[in-house]
Each structure stands twice: as structure tokens, then as C-alpha cells.
Amino acid sequence: MTYTYDGTFIGFLSVIFETYRLKQAPENIITESEHQPGLFGSVLFVPTQPDNAARVVKGLNKRCGDGSKRFMYHCFLSEQSRIEMMLYGLVALAVESKENVLENFREPVIRQLHRIERQMHREVHRMHAFVRFQKNQDELYVAFISPDFNVLPLLEPHFRSRYPAMRWLIYDTKRHYGLYYESPSARFVTLEDNTHRIVSEQMLTSDESEYQRLWQTYFESVDIPERRNLKLHLQHVPRRYWKYLIEKHPD
């Protein structure tokens, strides 16, 4: 049986509940958008049921501790191939075991999930360091990102705490959605095509353009060619982030 769902984490947990209600383990779990008729044999779409998802979380917390939902959510956002089946494997082990399976590194799937969670953790911290806001003429601070993993939902606490009085938007150009914050709340948004126009040279405030030029000048002034270590620099600031760093785009 292939189970499909709406692509949300709550929807995925609803699938987990349904597999146990039906007592039918999944051959695969995919999003409804991934489903191609005729390719997966027997298919069942599972609607999102928050109450059922909450029961799954309650059971996991009892077996694996209160951090199990957060761990699964971080792994789920990684978008790794067959991540749903890996997480189902975790749940199946938890149901069968009397110990906390998250600490059972003898199991290959547990080792793999911990590796994925560490990758997510590193990517979140890189976003904390590399996000660069630019203020446009609408007094909106905008930053573009294209992370390897879908970490945008995990960025709100850091930036809400750091910039509580600002109106800001962090937009993931790879996944085509953003996180918009205006005190006291934040929400996910999508924009029309050509999103970069909202921070084009013509849309920036005059002081923002000047600050960018000063920032670029500063980095040029502290750069000592004789002391450059590109290999070390790339370890700390991978090249894939450069296109969104103002200091990497001198006039």
C-alpha cells in the first residue's frame, strides 16, 4: 500500500496513525503531488487529521521523550529522498522497543536520521549567520535565501528575537515561499514571479544603498591579499551562499 498526504508534517503524522489503525504497513509514503496514477499500485490518500497526529506525538513522547516531535520535524523538513519511510521506520522501532530508540545507534535508520538532523542544525546556523536584509522603499527589510534544506520554518524564533521591531521578509527562492514578520505575528507567504524586484536598486531606500556601499568598502579595506586563505574561507562561508552576501558583490 502506498499512502499519500498533503505534504505537511501534520498530514504525515496522520498517515502514521492510519497505518496503525488499518494495521497495514506502508510500501511507500509520498505527497499527493508526487503521486502518478498507475505507478504505485494500491494507493490511499490520508486527509490531515490534527487529533490523530496529536495521538502519534503523545505516543512518541511517551516512548522517546518530549524532544521526539522536534527531532522528527527537523528531519521531515530536510526533504531527503524517502524521508517519510525513514521516519516511519523510527516510529515502528519505537512501538516495538521498550527503550528510547532515538539513542539506539545500532539501528542504521537511527544513525541516518541523526546525521540528517545534524545537517539541518548546521544549515539553520548558517542561515542565522548569512541572512542579509535590505530595506526597500516600503520600509520592508527583505532577505533572499536558497538553503539546501527547507529550514525556513525553523528561522522565525531567531529573527523574531533579534529584530522584534522590524517588518521583515525572508524569502526562499528555491521553494518559492517566504516568512513575513510584522509584530506581533509571522506568517508564510508566496510572491509573484520576479521577486528580486522588491530589492532592486530602484526599490532600495537611499540610505540602504549607501549602507551597502559602505559595507562593501569596509570589506575591501580589510582584505589583505597576502593573507587570503580561500580554502579556510570556503569552509566557513561556502560559495553557494555568496550570491546573497552584500559584501561579495562590490560595485
TrEMBL record:
Top-level taxon of origin: Bacteria
InterPro entries: DNA_repair_put, DUF4130
Pfam families recorded: DUF4130
Domain DUF4130 residue range list: 83-247
Identification of the protein by name: TIGR03915 family putative DNA repair protein
